[in-house]
Amino acid sequence: MTDKATIVLFSHVSNVRSITGAEKLLLFFCRELSPYFNCILVAPQDGKLTRKARLSGIDVHLMSIPLVYGMYTPYAGLEADIRKFQDSKENRELSEWLAVLRPAFIITSTCVHVLPAIAAKSLGIPVVWKISETITDNEHTPISVDIIHRNSDEILVISHTAASCFPEDIRQSKVTHLPPSWNDADIMLEAWSKLRGERRRELQIRPGEKLVGYISSFINKEKGLEHFVKMAVLVAAVHPEARFMVIGTPGDKSYYERCVRKVKLEGLNPHFKFIGYEESLPAAYCAMDVLVVPSLIREGFGMTALEGLAFGKPVVAYSSGGLREILHAAGCADYLVAADDIDGLAGKVGMLLANPELAAAIGSQARERVVAAYGPAAYRVRLQGYAERWNLRFCTAPPEPQAAPAVELPPGGEAPGEPEAAAAPRRKGLPRRAARLRRGKLRRGRLRRAKGRRRAELKRRARTARRRSTAGKRRSAARRSGRRRKAG
């Protein structure tokens, strides 16, 4: 539809070989917004995210924008450092691009993506700030909170945990909740039995063996792989038929290698499958019997746990942050364990392995509950309400300028013989759709002119470089010719 308003969504990452939970969440969000808006996705580089976005018909713009990681772990000099980032070349290019495009509003994703919000605000462009993580709680947290508050019109959080850093007045006036969901096509429900059989054969899992899984896009200490390995040692001692699968790209290689060595030292090599990056996650989830999420940080939500439950798998997790919210909603609070309680993890997993019928029933019931609470239908109902509100709040045409009322002059104030100035005629306001169309054409025209100027500048530089190169070659040839004449 040509009358849809243009909006820009900013992703802080675009990984080349894998796609993180945050990227999947933003891509799904962008796809679901597309019926309501013309969406442009801005990413720092080409990667899995941008390729999938283009395949979905979403416009992609590549732009390197500095990230402010201090927003996640606040410190005293945070605002001063942000001012330095604002003086960067990348920030100037960002501001110029937004000034030409003039989107109806922008959505910046994660707390560390500060510069798009500040640039848009400085141009009078509304900002929806999407928070998917839990900002570190320390004495400087109010600095991050205040920066987000000042530079946003709305704060969109994925969980109550992600909203917990904001004071009550901000939560009441500005914070809205949109929990994540999934694309039903990616779940491949009809193929579960086939996927399970094929993947287990590839992994050489025998019919009587049980597979316990661990998944993380990037494996580092905070994701708790070492806790998973220590749990596996305890579980394998009681359930020798248990097998363990680790999926994820090593983020901290020394930590990852330490976990692999621990498996070897414990004599569990035959029990473990270290997969690395997994292209087909549906097949991996289908192959599992139990999923364990031993995250050591307060997850903003926990997409791995949600995906596991959506695939009908029982999930055992540490009780913190968004993971607690998900498992409570799924009716699986009994399978939450206090953080760092490795014995507790082993006990819960062992109980599920000992009772496969119970594990299957728990997984099936949990799937029904998460579909009702977080499934695509529930997500679309929530998003439709937000999209309609954003359209009314940010995308309606501004009122046409009205003529200023006549000002009565005091006696003698008007020059003799000078005719009275006629009041400017009032323009009749355009219908909303026509106004949006006109604004869209103006934005597209400005963008085309900016691109044309950029192409002309690049051509001019190329011509100048060619002329300089040619002149240099001529001078070199002349010098060589002169040397030959002197030698003769």
TrEMBL record:
Protein name: Glycosyl transferase family 1 domain-containing protein
Lineage: Bacteria, Bacillati, Bacillota, Bacilli, Bacillales
Compositionally skewed regions (Basic residues) per UniProt: 425-488
Pfam annotation, one family: Glycos_transf_1
Species per Swiss-Prot/TrEMBL record: Paenibacillus albidus
Top-level division of the source organism's lineage: Bacteria
InterPro entries membership: Glyco_trans_1
Alphabetized GO MF terms: glycosyltransferase activity
Residue ranges, compositional bias (Low complexity): 403-424
Residues in Glycosyl transferase family domain copies: 198-369
Stretch list, region Disordered: 402-488
